Amino acid sequence: MKRCLFPGSFDPFTKGHEAIVHQALSLFDEVVIGVGINSKKQGLFSTEKKIAHIQSLFLDQPQVRVASFQKLTVEFCKDIQATHIVRGLRDAKDFEYERSIGHMNHAISGIDTVFLLTAQAHSALNSSIIREMYQNGADITPFVTNHELLV
Ligand code: ADP
Question: Distance (Å, rounded) from C-alpha 61 to C-alpha 124?
Answer without folding.
Answer: 26
